[in-house]
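Lay summary

Proteins are chains of building blocks that fold into shapes. Our project writes down both the chain and a compact code for its shape. Here are two examples, one after the other.
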Amino acid sequence: MVRGLYALNRWLRMTPWQVVLCLLVPIVLLPGLACAAFLGLFLQADDMAEVALWHDAYLWRVWRFTLGQAALSTGLSVLLAIPMACALLRRPQFPGRTLLLRSMEVTLVLPALVAVLGLISVYGRQGVVAQLGNMMGFSWSWRPYGLDGIVFAHLFFNVPLVARLLLQALERQPREHWLLVSQLGLQRSAIWRTIEWPVIRQYLPGLGALVFTLCFTSFAIVLTLGGGPGATTLEVAIYQALRFDDAPGQAAFLALLQLASCAVIWLWSHRHVQSLSVSGAFYGDRPCRPDQGGFAWLSDGFSILLLIGLIWPPLVLVIGQGLSGVPALWSQSLIWAALGRSLMIALGAALVAVVLAVSLQAGIRQLRLYGHERLGQWLAVSGRMTLMVPAMVLGTGLFVLLKPWVLMVNQSLFWVALLNGLMAVPFVLQSLPAMHSRGEQGPIRLLLSLGLTGWARWRWWLWPQWRGPIGLSLGYAMALSLGDFGVIALLGMPSEPTLTQLLHQQLGHYRTEGAAATAVTLLLVQAMGFMFWRHCLRPARSKRF
């Protein structure tokens, strides 16, 4: 083994430590754990055959419902997000635009249970809309449960996501394009055909696949708003099979069905789009567009107000309700125990995600630097594997394979932190886009001529460039892990809950005031985690003499 390691070292021109940290560790933890999960699923093949799952009408009805609600949510999210992105592009300055953009970014890491609580508080039977309706003399009959509530909750998360990504892509069009538009006096339809639609069309397959996967693998939203067996998805069915029915064969079958469905979507997306990234140069302010007046002003105002009405009321209401109940909640020991468990899991997940992301970026850069472009591409694909392999699939496989150990509390928290870290790797990689682009041949030769290698190169050259993105990545990964409910619901212990488990228990017992206080606590911990890591790892300022 040692001889093979040194042979690999000579071929890749990497030191043994670089081979271990940049290649072997990511490969073992990403494809390796995925293969272990698949092994656990396939070990249940005999159990699948015994229960004749292929002929179970209920399971196939669950699959059809999962597919249908994901397709409906994806279509509505894209159709609503396109005019909103175009409106924000056309209106670069209006009161509250910066706050609206920050709110759109907050929804990316907002815990699903917090959003569900906000939607129930606004649109539920005792919500604000129902109370206003009673005051005005009409009855509010819509209930946020079943298919309607699931789709609406997905719109709350996915419309801001798609609109924000499309806006970033549109803003990176060269300034010369907009100068030409202004000189020619092109109107709205012409601008749409020549500039906006070609950019949007390029990103739609990738965005559609991302949103479809998020809706297809949605767990907390469906578990809370599903409303019964008629609105059950594969994720919830897997959870019920493992937690309540003790049917690992049925869970393995459903996990494989879910994996196959997601793989088909991503393979289709990969054939139609090369990259989902919208990073690149920003070309600055654009000249005044000729299509900003008339009907465009009304339509843009309606789109922006619709986006504000989608995001702000649930957030404001949850925070407003929760602040009054925070003192009473914080006087209980249960909340501090749950907070401690959540922080332990989140810190471990953040470290796993950042270490893996940095190792992947360093390995990709090293491979490309010495001409191993194909191997670098495969390493980059492995970093995004968890987008195609849902968390419930990984959790189910490892649950089946390691059942005697994961039922222990300490072991289960370890596996929850590890799985949360793996699921955060693709998102953390987006926060580290420029790590290998700065290491060109010129600086490398200068470093070698100065004798800066190993720790000295890291201390004086790499760390000053990486500390800011690493701080952002740690805060982002911690926020994602703090808001996760799927993995902890599968592997955690309800008697010793985390913050998200406690919030779900409070929602299940209709304790909305306590749930709102727990949601505010969760949001506060996420914000403090962001500020802590951004402050501790902020880029060093140059000293003035």
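And here is the second example, written the same way.
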Amino acid sequence: MALAAFLALALWRGLSGWWLRAMAAAVVLAALANPSFQREEREALSDIVIAVIDESASQKLADRPAQTAAAVEALEAAVARLPNTELRVFRLGDGEGNEGTLLMSRLAEALAEEPRARLAGAVLVTDGQLHDIDRAPSLPAPLHVLLTGREGDWDRRLIVKNAPAFAILGETVTLTLRIEDQGAAPPADRAELNISVDGGEEMTFVVPVGEDLELPLELPHGGINVIRFAVPPAEGELTDRNNAAVVQINGVRDRLRVLLVSGEPHMGERVWRNLLKSDSAVDLVHFTILRPPEKQDGVPVNELSLIAFPTRELFLEKIDEFDLIVFDRYKLRGILPALYLDNVRRYVEAGGAVLVAAGPDFASAASLYRSPLGEAMPGVPTGRVIEQGFRPAITELGRRHPVTSGLEDFAPQGEGGESPAWGRWFRQVEVEPVSGNTVMAGIEGRPLLILDRVGEGRIALMASDHTWLWSRGFEGGGPQLELLRRLAHWMMKEPELEEEALQATAEGATVTIVRRTLGEGAREVTVTAPDGSKVTLTLEEVAPGRLEAVWQAPEMGLYRLTDGELDAVIAVGPAAPREFEATIAEPSALAPLVEATRGGVARLEEGMPDLRQVRAGRAAAGRGWLGITPRGAYVTADVTLLPLVSPWIFLMLAGLLTVGAWLREGRR
């Protein structure tokens, strides 16, 4: 700014040497700029080729492992022959979950570990099946694919397109299945489909291939129903890992239909009614005898009768519509003919459920045991009724039975920690057990609650009519609600209350195996893995009648369990993992990314392509070869700066020009 001001002043005063002064100023400015020559010592950096090796589950099919190993070996040799080029190898295995092949995520991780300025190319050794193409990173160099597999590969898979998580018992639900052939499959119009429920016997059907199948299904029981669908392996297909599928449907009851038959009004009758009506899911029909036929009090019949009770309709025509029939202090009065009670017996044998709450009349000549229903009773009355206080107790067998196991935990704690501290009952009908399991005992260990299976159905005999004392809170009450809930669910054949059961649950790869039994001693369970290998596990008793084992499954898929008596199935992850949804090697998913970088795709079955160097911006693939682009990256080791002109020369020039300006202006 000062030099410009001096020049402007010289021009304003009309000095003739202003131009010499301007030149002097320019020399001064040049001196301040210090023009110099820069000399760098550079060290060339090698180019980097990244190779991502797909070692996921689908890459282990057929001869793909051998193809992959040969490709990696050939790639290492090819890169080693190129000048100043290095190979970085990154491998991709199976993830912990069911995410599939995260090939692009692994490529992005590899790029993050290497300097992009040195990247000359990237090579993927894969079957082309990946599940994260949306995570593809941007590449400054060509991307190539070495494709495993063969043109003639084919595979058959089973697809469950639609399956509900819940279904109502007694109603039909529809599942949608499809059997689909992929790749160069031989012509096939139909295939076998095997269906099994809860590990039971398989049912075989012949169904069309390549069409959606609408499968109507009615669940056999409440709780979890495990339904397995499988297609037999076909000769020549890549794998049978996707030939099976497991559907777990929770069966729930829409309404619990209960028929309560009361023999006479008594203190416990309203307790039964209130208990059953308190649950909105229970449809209760209460048949009670308010005025027995033998009662003669002179009241006109037309003043007593309301609506005739439909006994024939209930006990003959619609008895199968009830889930549970409760006889509460019922005795033979001639109101229900023997034919009706015999029909109740057949109802039990065909799969129904009956609960008998015995009152004093059970020990008399009018006992319900004297009817045709007595053939299904698990206990025979001796004719004795004991009237004294007693505290119901769980038998040793009852501690192992799921209906009464742990029932003490629902009892109030007594003084000094005494348990169970539930209230007493004051009447028990003496019975002799003839079948079933005695799970509760009363006075002097006499049977109080006997559970039995009759044909396809179940029956329970409670040898007392004083259960209502628990609900009234007498002496602290007791777990009547929990006991009756378990009784009802056991008679409804709910799986969680089966006394002999083998079940398994899975959280991730952790499998918990539970064996419930009334027997004693350790049990062993044989687990068959999806690949056919077997392992034997020893179950340890964690509670009376309950044995458990916790095991880590080595892979996803369908496992079959057996202890020699019972069988079960469990799906760890999906039965057909995402990795096996598509198994045919094909590059269509990667093609857009390869084309964007001017790379290429080479099938390994046609031989390993040559690797050569090409200029950036040119096509990096051709017939039988793939190219990488040298980047010429370097690092500067030293920098030397040499001045172009000595500072003294600038000083002399500036001085001479200034003196010249004075001399010129001094002549005037």
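What can we say about the second shape? The longest strand covers residues 173-183.
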